[in-house]
Amino acid sequence: MKYKIIDGKKVPVLPAQAKEIIKNKKTGKVYESKEAFDQDVADPKTATVQADFQQDVEITVASLNVFGKTK
Questions:
Q1: pLDDT of residue 64
Q2: Which residue in 15, 16, 14, 25 sits closest to 56, CA to CA?
């Protein structure tokens, strides 16, 4: 495990993965990219408009055991 010194304390640096999710708010359709969504907006055969854009970010981190002290 990697550590970083913050305010003089050794703090573990946890590995994390970020995943961007592009969706249509109305239909729930998931797109592979923002460009794919923009192509859907530009397609006159669909009712998709720019206001239907939804972007979520899913963050996954490694598990961490936390031990605390109480009085």
A1: 65
A2: 25
